[in-house]
Design goal:
This protein has helices spanning 3-16, 43-52; strands at residues 27-34, 39-40, 58-67, 71-80, 83-94, 97-105. By secondary structure, it is of the alpha+beta class.
Length: 111
Amino acid sequence: MAPLETALTYMDIFFSGHDLERLYTILDDQVIFEGPFYQFTSAYAYVTSLQADPPVECHYNIRYTFENDTQVNLIYDFIKSGIHTRMSQFLEVNTAGITRILLIFDTGTFT
């Protein structure tokens, strides 16, 4: 799967809020996730956190995508009741799956 296709599959699974264990099929076991609220260093820790507090009733609208052989940057609108903000996710991908996710957004929108 090409990096952009992998990244979009990740987004679809994440925003569905269901069957989050499907993320294991595209995440490297030692994926590093860095975001404003959370940091994880394994697929297990990240997926377990999402299962404990799944994304519900939220959607996204991709604005821009940038891709090379091993990296993808997605810039998108995050939409949830009362919240609409622009986000950026930088993903590194190799044959094992997504190895790194860097999520950037203004946390003020969520307070």
